[in-house]
Amino acid sequence: MPGTVGRSGGFNANPGPFRPGDGQPEPPRKLTAEADACFTWLLQRLGTDSRPSPWHRVDGTVVATFAELLESQEHLATALAQNPADEKLLRLRLQYAQQIGRFSSLLGMTPRDRDRCPQVPAESDQNDAVAGLMKRLGIAG
């Protein structure tokens, strides 16, 4: 049963109300030029500069790790293109692809994943809580 503690372990519970973040994610360490470019692209893609934003500065660790994974996968793809028969490289690239899939889900990179994330209420929803709730539930247009 969704959200029933004891039956689902609480894993299906509603994430709760939206809590605004404390700023734009920052990289936790110096990144390579390629990873830094990917980090910046990811921040733009995730809409971290919008206000209010669900992002926190500490989210930069996850985004930076994801950017480094994407960079590493590109290097693996280049090496695999030069030597397509190398099974070690192929296995490693598949493992990277699995990790990238997990991070994509965690960050809400696909529409389905974004549906699971807490939604930022619209400005009018913040002013009229009942109307906003009815709109999100699909009761009122």
Distance between the termini: 29 Å
The secondary structure category is mainly alpha
Strand content: under 5%
What letter string, H or E per element, gives the SSE order?
Answer: HHHHHH
List how many beta strands DSSP finds. Answer: 0
Radius of gyration: 19 Å
- Report the uncertain regions: none
Q: Could you give a short account of the major beta sheet?
A: none
Kindly state the percentage of residues in helix: 55-70%
What general outline do the C-alpha atoms trace? elongated
Number of helices: 6
Overall pLDDT = 76
Overall description:
This protein has 141 residues and is mostly helical. Helices cover 55% and strands 0% of the residues. It has 6 helices and no strands. The chain has helices at 33-46, 60-82, 87-107, 111-116, 123-127, 129-137. The relative contact order is 0.12. The mean pLDDT is 76.
Features:
141 residues, mainly alpha, 6 helices, 0% strand, elongated
Helices and strands, with pairings:
Blueprint: H1 33-46, H2 60-82, H3 87-107, H4 111-116, H5 123-127, H6 129-137
Helix pairs in contact: 1-2, 2-3
